[in-house]
């Protein structure tokens, strides 16, 4: 049996259901019903996505939005060790502690590069291998992993699914013809036949629209349809090179917007930084430098 993305969805759904079950049993969380229901419904969307009518999944999404909007989720108790115990254990392991985290991208790259399974399946396999390596290194059972995973995802809360919501919104914008509107606006100010101007418009447009949407996936469908294809690819650019660098330009926008809550607001919350925009301020110079580099790379490599 060949592994597919559907198997990764199945595994993700089962993990989320485990989080849900533990949340319902968490007596230290006064909002445990909201947490348990949210992660349970979210897990079912992965398990039932291809088996039930789209309308049913739509109702599930509305329920998820309601649970997040009405502040029905909160932090619980996770049986954590003390900070001193964690620091002592980390010091004893040294740099070996980073091995499970490094395994994930290495396995992902290997599967994507040397097999026909694809990067998403590789990411799922890399996560499983990283989990097994961490369990063996730390000599802990699977329940500890479930509790730690639940602790992290409860800290992120509803914003963990924000990227999927925004990607779906970008798809809807594209179907609604927003790309055509953007193309008309940009074509009126970009000199016709200028490759450099088209590249700048595509890269900067990806960054700006990502800042508005909060997600590069949401921006990609709209800006690539409106600017990337008609103004860059149609002038002879390699679509694979232009697409990759265009997406990376969108990530530059991700670094500069509070709309990307799961990237910029969540770290501030986890690190207990009072200024929620402190992470963004630190990232802006790097993002702008990367955006300029992307313009240069697309102009020199895509044509």
From TrEMBL:
InterPro entries named in the record: DUF979
Keywords (A to Z) from UniProt: Membrane, Transmembrane, Transmembrane helix
Transmembrane stretches, start-end: 39-67, 88-111, 117-138, 159-187, 199-229, 241-260, 280-302
Protein name, per record: Permease
Natural source organism: Thermanaerovibrio acidaminovorans (strain ATCC 49978 / DSM 6589 / Su883) (Selenomonas acidaminovorans)
């Amino acid at each position: 049996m060949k592994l597919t993305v559907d198997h990764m969805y199945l595994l993700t759904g089962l993990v989320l259901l485990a989080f849900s079950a533990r949340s319902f049993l968490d007596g230290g969380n006064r909002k445990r019903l909201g947490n348990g229901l949210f992660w349970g419904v979210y897990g079912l969307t992965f398990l039932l996505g291809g088996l039930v009518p789209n309308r049913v999944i739509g109702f599930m999404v509305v329920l998820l939005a309601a649970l997040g909007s009405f502040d029905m989720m909160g932090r619980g108790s996770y049986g954590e060790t003390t900070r001193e115990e964690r620091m002592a254990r980390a010091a004893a392991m040294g740099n070996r502690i980073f091995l499970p985290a490094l395994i994930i991208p290495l396995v992902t790259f290997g599967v994507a590069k040397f097999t026909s399974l694809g990067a998403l399946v590789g990411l799922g396999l890399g996560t499983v291998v990283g989990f097994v390596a961490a369990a063996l290194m730390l000599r802990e059972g699977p329940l500890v992993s479930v509790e730690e995973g639940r602790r992290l995802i409860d800290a992120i809360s509803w914003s963990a699914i924000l990227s999927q919501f925004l990607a779906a919104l970008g798809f809807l914008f594209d179907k609604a013809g927003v790309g055509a509107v953007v193309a008309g606006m940009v074509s009126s100010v970009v000199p016709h036949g200028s490759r450099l101007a088209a590249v700048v418009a595509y890269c900067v447009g990806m960054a700006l629209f990502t800042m508005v949407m909060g997600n590069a996936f949401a921006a990609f469908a709209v800006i690539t349809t409106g600017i990337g294809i008609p103004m860059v690819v149609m002038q002879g650019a390699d679509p694979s090179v232009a697409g990759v660098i265009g997406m990376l330009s969108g990530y530059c926008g991700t670094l500069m917007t509070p709309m990307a809550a799961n990237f910029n607001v969540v770290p501030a919350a986890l690190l207990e930084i009072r200024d929620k925009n402190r992470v963004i301020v630190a990232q802006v110079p790097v993002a702008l430098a990367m955006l300029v580099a992307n313009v240069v790379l697309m102009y020199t490599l895509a044509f």
